[in-house]
Amino acid sequence: MKENEKQLIILCQEGKWENFSPLYDFYVEKIYKYIFFKVKHQQNTEDLVSTVFLKAVSNLKKFNPENNYFSAWLYKIAKNVIADHYRFKREESGLDDIWGLKADNNTEKDIENLEKKEVIKKALKKLKADQREVVILRVWHELSYREISQIIKKKEANAKMIFCRAVKNLKHEIPLSLFIYLIISAN
Amino acid sequence: MTKQTSIKVQKILEDIYLIDSSLKKEEEKIKSLIEEMIENEPEIKLNQEFVNRLKEKVFTEIENLEKKDEKKVFFWQKLSYVSAGAAIVILLAVFLFPNFILNDFKKDSSQKISVLEERAFGSLDIDLRQSDSGEMEAEIADDSTSVLGLGETAEDMPSQVDDISIMPHPIVEQKNYHYVYEGEKLEEINLDDISNLVYSRVSDNRLANQGARVLSSFSGLPISLDNFSQKELKHFNMVEEKPYGYSLSVNLGNNTISVYSNWQNWPQPYKDCYDRECLDSLKLDRADMLSEGQLISIANEFIANYNVDLKNHSQALISEQTLERINNPENNPDHSYPEQAQIVYPLIIDDKVVVDNNGNPEGIKVGINIREEMVSSLVYNINSSNLVSSPYKLIDNLDEINPLLKRGGINPHFYRQSENNSIEVKLSDPEIALVRTWLPSLDKQSSSEIFLPALVFPISEKPDQYFNRQNIVIPLIEEVFRNSLKKIEERTGNDVEILPMPRIAPDQEPENAREIQKDDVYRIMPIE
Predict the structure, then answer these.
(1) B197 and B219 in one domain?
(2) Which domain holds residue A127?
(3) Full-model pTM
C-alpha cells in the first residue's frame, strides 16, 4: 500500500475520490486499534475514528504528499483527536483492560497468555509516555522511524533514540524470573 | 514465530544496534522481549458493520465537499422564495424521507451482531433502578396522593369538582415482602450454558446523513445547506390533517419512529365535562372492553396496513398491566375500566426476549384506544437489527443471587419491616432474558442502550390486591449484579428492608378501611 499511497493521494486531490477507498480500507483498522488502545471504549472509539476520517477527507487537499507520509499525517490527526477527547473528558487514559483474552476454552493457555500480557502491560506502563508511544507505533503498528518522527514531531534520529531507551527500560523492568519464563515459553 | 515476525524482529534489532551497539551483548533478552510484544499485541476486534457505515459516511462527506467546491452560493439572495422553499422542503420531508427510511431500513433488517473484544463497552457501572420507570415511584406516588380517596392524582381531578372531600382510602399496611423461589428449574440451570455477551445497539447515522443530503440537494432555499458540513438531519414530524389522523415523528438521533393520534382530530369525550357526574356517565364499562383476540387483531391489522417490519420481534402480547386493569377494575386508581390497552411485540436478540427492568417485554409498543377500537400509538426502534456484543464476566455461582432475590431483585419494595406483617411472595421458574438499560457515556452527556443477560422470575401468586409486580429481575453480569446488591444493601441494610417515609394514616385503623368517615383525624407519621 505504502508504495502507491502517494499516487492515490494525488488522484484524490485531483478530485478522483474513488481512490480514497483503498486508503480507507488499509488504515481504518489500524486507526481503530490505535484509538481503542487509548480510550478503551467501543462507542467512543467509533466516534473518534469517524472524526479522524472526516477530518482527513476535509483536509486532504492541504496535505503535501511530497515530503510527508500519509500514515503519519493520519496518526497525527488521531493523536490530536484523542488529546481533544481527554482534554474535554478530563480523564486519564490507561492501559488496563486492553488485553482481552481470546474466547477459547483452553484455560491453561489463557492463563499463560494472561501472564505474558500482564508482564508486558506492567512494563509498558512504567515507560514514559513518549517512549510507550514510539514502542507501540514501531512494534504493533509497524511504522518506520521516519513516519513515527512525523507523528511525534521529532527528528528521525530522536525517534530511534527514544525507542532504544524504551527497550533498555523494558529490559530492566522485566524481572529475571519472568524473563526466564519468557525465554522458556518462547522456545 | 513466523518468518515475517522474525524478519521484523531482526530489523528492529539492527536499528537498535546502530544506536547502541552495546545492546548486542543482551541480544537474547531483547529479542525475546520484542518477540513477546509482537505476539501479545492486544486483540482488538473491529466491527465490520461500523467500517462499512463509516465508509459510507466518509464518501457522503466527500460528495458534500465536492458540491461545496463547485457552487458559489450567495446567502440571503433568494429571500423572496422563502415561502415556496419552505413548502418544498416540507414536501420533500413528507414524500422523500419516509421512502428512503423504509427502503434503507428494510434493506438490512436482518439482525447482525458482531462480537467485539472483552469489556468493549467499558465498565458497566449501572444502577439498574435508575431507569425504573415503574413500580417504586408508582407506589410512592399512589400513597402520597391517594388521600383524595378516588385514587386520582390532584392533576387528574377536574378543578370544577365541588364535592371533593377527604375520603377514606384503603389503608395499605406496612408490609415486608419476602420473595421465595418455589420452582424447580433453577438447579438445572448451568451458568456455563448462559451466554456472557452484553449487547449494544450500534448508533447508526446513515439515515441522518442521507436525510441531510436530500435536503441539501434542493436549491430553492434562501440559504445554502451545502455550505454546512458534517450535517445530519436529526428529526422531523408530519401530521395527517384528517379525522382520526396520526402524527408521525421520526427521530434519527435515537432511531425511533413514533406514531401518535393527532389529538386535535380525534374525539375528546371528556372535553365538555365539568363535574363528577358527567365524568362518571362517560366512563367505559365492562361491555365496552375488548377481548384479547380483538385487541391483538386491531394491533395486527395496523401493523399490516402500515407495513411495519416485525423481523426480530415475536408475536403480539397484551401487557400484563392492561390485562390487570381490564380484569380487576376495582384495583385501578379510579375503579374504572381502562381507556387504553397496550400491546407489545417483544424484541428478540439472539433468541432471547428483551425485557425492561421490571421484567416486562420490550419491543414495538402499540397503544389501542379501546373507546374508538383503533390504534392510537406506536413506538418503533428503527435500529433493532444492528448490534454489537462483548463478553463480560458472569457471576460465579447461582447461589449468589439469593440475597438479591429475597429482596425482590433490582427493584425491591421499600416497605417497613414489620414482624407481624411479613408476607411471602412466591416465585416460579425463571427464564433467561436480556434486560434493557442505558449505559452513560464517560462524560455522562449521553448514553447508549445496552442489553444484559438476566434471570426473570415470574411471581406465581400475588399476596394482595395492591401488589402490582409481575416479575423479579436478577442481572447475571457480575459487576452489574454486585453493584445492584451493594446499592440495595446501602439503602436497606443487610437483613432488614427499611425505607422510612412519611405516611398519612388515621389514628385508629378501622377494620374496613372503606368505612372511614370523612371527619377522621389524620396525622403525619414521623420519619424514623
Answers:
(1) no
(2) 107-186
(3) 0.60
